[in-house]
Amino acid sequence: MGLICIDLFTTLDGVAQAPGGPGEDADGGFAFGGWQAPLIDEVVGEQIDSGMAGMDALLLGRRTYDIFAAYWPKADGSIAELFNRLPKYVASRQARNLEWANSTLLGPDVSSAVRELRGRHAEVHVIGSLDFVQTLFAQRLFDRLTLWVYPILLGGGKKVFADGVVPTNLRLVEPVVSSPKGAVQLRYVLADGTPGVGDMSAGAPSG
């Protein structure tokens, strides 16, 4: 059974909208497109490269696919070579003409299609695609979640955990590493069950 891996860049207050550039996603009048660019460094770059080592397919939402399809076929380097070569699956509610090589539109039953991808690939990565990610969170259709958390607060914008998240346990699977510019990589896997509760006052010291 293959893995569905979600990779997201987020601010400390959970905003993950348009990290890459000003034209990426201006929904809601978002004015901070490209907020990640001043904070990227070699450590984050190495973490991203390392995390892609096992990737054998991309799963993208419509907006992220359009951004990637306009950029990566013209780009050079190892990431461009990888992305251009890999199978790419697109979640979209509308029929689309997918011109980027090796691209396939998922059927109308996205949940079933994602489950089928687990049987077809070893490691499918969802990069960005924030609106689509909400569907995966709501249906627990993911196996690994990697967050790069940056030391800035934006106050408004699309959040990593928006409406539709269900109570879920996660388990940290790698040591937390901070980059020179303060980005922290957090890598989790989906864990069984739902969050438990307790009463901390029962064990509180008296006096």
Automatic annotation (TrEMBL):
Residues 4-174 form the Bacterial bifunctional deaminase-reductase C-terminal domain. The lineage of its organism: Bacteria, Bacillati, Actinomycetota, Actinomycetes, Mycobacteriales. It comes from Rhodococcus daqingensis. It holds the Pfam family RibD_C. InterPro entries: DHFR-like_dom_sf, RibDG_C. This is Dihydrofolate reductase family protein. It comes from the Bacteria.
